[in-house]
C-alpha cells in the first residue's frame, strides 16, 4: 500500500491575510512540497495537469517531475492526471519515457480527460469528443510504448508510418498507467480492459458513488482475466487538515474552506466532511476515517492526499506533510497490512513491472485465452460465422 | 403500481403553492382510482432542498436529500410541478430544481404544470418558462395547466378552480395510463414479468395455434418485440387480451432511467468503444 500526496497547483489567495503567491513562488513551492514528502517518508508525489486559472503550477507535468526527480532519491512520481484527450499521445509517450530514464523508473501516470470545455480547443480538440479521444489516444499511447516502427491511422491526429518512440521506455517496460475518472463508466471499463490501474479522485464525492465505480472496475478486471476482482489496482484520493485536536483543526481550516474556489460559498464544512473524504481533525480522526476506506473499496494500492490547496501557506502545508509522515501513515500502514491477503499486489514499481514482463505475465488487452472475455469473444465470432453461412452451422 | 410525484415550491408556512399542489395531487389520486389504478404519491417541497440546490450549483456537491428527490422524479409515472410566480417568472429555486436534474429525467413522463400568483394576470408566467424546460427533459407537458391567483381561493365554486383541477388531473391520469400500461396492468405485474410473459405468449403461439387470438395477439406473435411494439389497447378485460400487459413508452423510459450505468453486467464492452 502506497501513501502520498497529489497537487492541483492552484494559485489561491490566502483568505486570512490576503496574500497571493506569484506563479514563480507557487511552482517553487510545489517542488519544495514534493521534496518534503520524500523526507517525511511518503511514497508518492503526483501532479495534475491544468491549463487554466487558478491551476497555474502544473501546466507541464513532465518538466515539473523531471526537476523533482533530480532532487529526490526514492519517491515515486506520478500524475493526477495527464490529459490524454488534449495532449498528443506521441508527445506523452516521448516525454514520459524520457522522464522514466531520468528518474530511474520512479514514474507512473494517471490518464484523465479534463472537464473544462474551453481547454479542448486551445489544443485543437473538441470536448464533445471527450470519450472517443480518451479511447483512441490511449490505445495509440499503449501501442507507441510497445511497438517499434509503428504504422497507425486514426481519427484525431496525423497517421504514423514506421514511427518509434524516442527514447524507448526504460528496460523496455513502459510506465504503469492508472486511469482516472469520477463518473464515466467507460473509463473504469477502459482501465479493466488493459489490465491497468483505476484511480478515483473522490474528493467531492460520497463513498456510495465511489464504491460503485470501484466495483465496476474490479468486476470487469476479473472478466478480462487479469486477476481476481480483489487483485485489481485501485487508487483513491482524499483531503485532510490536521491539528493536535479536532477543534483547533476546524478553527484553523474553516477560513480556507469557506473561501476556497472549489469549496467556498456552498455547503458548510460540516456537511462536506460528512459526505466526502475531507477530514478536518486530529491525526487519530484521519487514521480512523481512512482505515475505513477498505470496508467499501477493498484492499487497495494507493492513497493520495490533497494538502496544498485553498490558499494554505507553504509552512502549513509542510506541517501537514510532517503529520502525515510521522503520525498518520505509519498507523495506516499497520491497519491496511493487517489481514491483507498475501496475493493482493502492491502498487506496481518499475522493478515489479520488469519482472512481470520477463516472466510473461503482463496483461493482454481485452483478455488472454482462458478469460471470460476471450470465451465470449470466441462465442460471438462463432455466432457471426453461423449467421453468415447457415449451411455449415 | 403508479407513482405520482409532485414537485412544488411552497415558500411560506401556509403557502398557496403547497395548497394547490396538494389539491392537484389528491385530485390526481382520485382520477387514477376512478380508472382502477392503484397509486402511491410523493410530495417534494423544493423549499426544503433550497440549500442543497445552491450547493450543487456553486460547488458541484450533491447532497443526499437532493439525490433522493431526483431519484423519486425518475421513478415517477406522472409528475405534477407547481411554482409561485415572482416577477413574471417561476421562483428561481423552482427552475433550479429542473435545471440540475439529469437530462432525460422525464423521458416518457406526463407532467402537469401548475402555478400561483397574486393576480390572474400572472397566469401564463410559470408555464411559459417551465414548459420548454419540461420539453428539454423529454417530459410530456399536458396542454392544460392549472393557475391559481389570490382571487381563486376566495371565489368558491364560481371561480372554477376545482373544476380546472379536475379537468387537468383527468388528462394527466389518462395520459399516464396510456404511457404506462405495464405499471397498471395487473396489480402485481412488474415490468420484468410483463416482458417475460410476453415472450411466452409468442413462443406458444408459434408452436401450437392458440384459441381465438385477438387481432392484437395475432399481429404480435411473430415477433419478440411483442412487448415493445403494440399500442396500448385499453384495459385487458375490454380488449379481450390476456392479462399480460405490454410495456408502454413510459414503462420503457422508466426502465431505462432505472438502469444502473455502473452495473458490471450491463456496461458497454470496451471493444465497442474501441471499434466505434
UniProtKB/TrEMBL annotation, chain A:
GO molecular function annotations of the record: monooxygenase activity; oxidoreductase activity, acting on paired donors, with incorporation or reduction of molecular oxygen
State the InterPro entries in the record: Bact_Lucif_Oxidored (IPR050766), LLM_FMN-dep_put (IPR023934), Luciferase-like_dom (IPR011251), Luciferase-like_sf (IPR036661)
Q: Is ATP-binding among this UniProt entry's keywords?
A: no
Q: Which UniProt keywords apply?
A: Monooxygenase, Oxidoreductase
Domain Luciferase-like, by residue range, is: 1-298
Cited Gene3D superfamilies: Luciferase-like domain
Biased-composition ranges for Basic and acidic residues?
A: 372-393
Question: What is this protein's name?
Answer: Putative luciferase-like monooxygenase, FMN-dependent, CE1758 family
Q: Taxonomic lineage of this organism?
A: Bacteria, Bacillati, Actinomycetota, Actinomycetes, Micrococcales
TrEMBL record, chain B:
- InterPro entries on file: CE1759_FMN_reduct, Flavoprotein-like_sf, FMN_Rdtase-like_dom, NAD(P)H-dep_FMN_reductase
Name all NADPH-dependent FMN reductase-like domain ranges.
3-152
Q: Which GO terms describe its molecular function?
A: oxidoreductase activity
Give the record's keywords alphabetically.
Flavoprotein, FMN, Oxidoreductase
Q: From start to end residue, where is composition biased (Basic and acidic residues)?
A: 249-262
* Pfam families xrefs: FMN_red (PF03358)
Q: Where does the record place the region Disordered?
A: 195-276
Tell whether Protein biosynthesis is among the UniProt keywords: no
Q: Which residues form a coiled coil?
A: none
Look up the domain of life of the source.
Answer: Bacteria
Q: Does the keyword Signal apply?
A: no
What name appears for this protein in its UniProt entry?
Answer: NADPH-dependent FMN reductase
Amino acid at each position: 500500500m502506497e501513501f502520498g500526496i497529489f497537487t492541483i497547483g492552484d494559485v489561491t489567495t490566502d483568505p486570512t491575510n490576503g496574500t497571493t503567491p506569484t506563479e514563480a513562488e507557487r511552482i517553487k513551492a510545489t517542488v519544495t512540497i514534493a521534496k518534503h514528502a520524500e523526507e517525511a517518508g511518503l511514497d508518492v508525489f503526483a501532479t495534475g495537469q491544468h491549463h487554466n486559472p487558478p491551476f497555474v503550477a502544473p501546466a507541464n507535468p513532465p518538466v515539473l517531475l523531471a526537476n523533482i526527480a533530480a532532487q529526490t532519491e526514492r519517491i515515486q512520481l506520478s500524475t493526477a492526471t495527464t490529459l490524454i484527450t488534449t495532449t498528443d499521445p506521441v508527445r506523452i509517450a516521448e516525454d514520459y519515457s524520457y522522464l522514466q530514464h531520468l528518474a530511474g523508473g520512479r514514474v507512473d501516470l494517471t490518464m484523465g480527460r479534463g472537464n473544462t470545455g474551453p481547454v479542448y480547443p486551445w489544443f485543437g480538440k473538441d470536448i464533445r469528443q471527450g470519450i472517443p479521444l480518451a479511447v483512441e489516444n490511449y490505445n495509440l499511447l499503449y501501442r507507441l510504448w510497445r511497438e517499434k516502427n509503428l504504422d497507425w491511422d486514426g481519427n484525431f491526429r496525423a497517421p504514423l508510418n514506421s514511427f518509434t518512440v524516442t527514447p524507448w521506455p526504460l528496460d523496455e517496460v513502459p510506465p504503469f498507467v492508472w486511469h482516472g475518472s469520477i463518473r464515466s463508466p467507460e473509463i473504469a471499463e477502459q482501465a479493466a480492459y488493459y489490465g491497468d490501474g483505476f484511480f478515483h479522485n473522490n474528493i467531492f464525492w460520497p463513498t456510495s458513488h465511489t464504491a460503485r465505480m470501484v466495483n465496476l472496475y474490479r468486476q470487469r478486471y476479473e472478466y478480462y482475466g487479469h486477476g481476481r476482482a480483489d487483485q485489481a489496482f485501485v487508487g483513491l484520493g482524499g483531503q485532510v487538515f490536521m491539528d493536535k485536536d479536532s477543534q483547533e483543526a476546524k478553527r484553523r481550516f474553516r477560513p480556507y474552506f469557506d473561501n476556497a474556489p472549489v469549496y467556498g460559498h456552498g455547503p458548510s464544512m460540516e456537511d462536506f466532511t460528512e459526505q466526502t473524504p475531507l477530514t478536518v481533525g486530529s491525526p487519530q480522526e484521519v487514521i480512523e476515517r481512512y482505515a475505513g476506506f477498505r470496508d467499501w473499496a477493498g484492499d487497495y494500492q494507493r492513497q493520495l492526499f490533497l494538502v496544498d490547496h485553498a490558499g494554505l501557506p507553504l509552512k502549513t502545508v509542510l506541517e501537514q506533510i510532517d503529520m502525515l509522515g510521522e503520525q498518520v501513515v505509519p498507523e495506516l500502514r499497520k491497519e491496511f497490512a493487517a489481514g491483507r491477503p498475501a496475493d493482493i499486489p502492491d502498487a506496481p514499481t518499475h522493478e515489479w513491472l520488469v519482472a512481470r514482463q520477463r516472466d510473461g505475465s503482463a496483461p493482454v488487452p481485452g483478455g488472454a485465452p482462458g478469460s471470460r472475455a476471450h470465451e465470449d469473444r470466441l462465442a460471438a465470432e462463432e455466432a457471426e460465422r453461423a449467421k453468415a453461412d447457415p449451411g455449415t452451422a | 403500481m403508479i407513482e405520482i410525484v409532485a414537485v412544488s415550491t411552497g415558500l411560506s408556512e401556509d403557502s398557496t403553492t403547497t395548497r394547490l399542489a396538494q389539491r392537484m395531487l389528491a385530485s390526481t389520486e382520485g382520477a387514477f382510482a376512478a380508472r382502477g389504478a392503484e397509486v402511491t404519491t410523493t410530495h417534494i417541497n423544493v423549499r426544503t432542498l433550497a440549500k442543497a440546490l445552491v450547493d450543487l450549483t456553486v460547488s458541484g456537491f450533491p447532497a443526499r436529500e437532493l439525490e433522493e428527490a431526483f431519484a423519486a422524479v425518475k421513478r415517477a409515472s406522472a409528475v405534477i410541478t407547481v411554482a409561485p410566480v415572482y416577477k413574471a417568472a417561476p421562483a428561481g429555486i423552482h427552475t433550479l430544481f429542473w435545471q440540475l436534474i439529469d437530462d432525460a429525467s422525464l423521458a416518457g413522463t406526463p407532467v402537469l404544470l401548475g402555478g400561483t400568483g397574486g393576480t390572474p394576470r400572472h397566469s401564463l408566467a410559470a408555464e411559459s418558462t417551465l414548459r420548454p424546460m419540461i420539453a428539454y427533459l423529454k417530459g410530456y407537458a399536458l396542454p392544460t395547466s392549472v393557475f391559481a391567483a389570490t382571487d381563486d381561493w376566495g371565489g368558491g365554486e364560481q371561480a372554477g378552480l376545482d373544476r380546472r383541477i379536475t379537468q387537468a388531473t383527468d388528462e394527466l391520469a389518462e395520459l399516464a395510463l396510456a404511457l404506462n400500461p405495464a405499471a397498471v396492468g395487473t396489480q402485481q405485474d412488474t415490468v420484468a414479468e410483463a416482458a417475460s410473459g410476453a415472450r411466452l405468449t409468442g413462443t406458444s403461439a408459434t408452436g401450437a395455434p392458440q384459441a381465438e387470438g385477438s387481432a392484437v395477439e395475432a399481429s404480435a406473435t411473430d415477433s419478440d418485440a411483442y412487448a415493445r411494439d403494440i399500442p396500448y389497447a385499453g384495459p385487458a378485460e375490454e380488449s379481450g387480451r390476456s392479462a399480460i400487459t405490454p410495456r408502454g413508452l413510459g414503462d420503457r423510459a422508466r426502465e431505462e432511467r432505472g438502469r444502473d450505468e455502473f452495473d458490471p453486467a450491463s456496461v458497454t464492452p470496451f471493444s465497442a468503444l474501441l471499434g466505434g
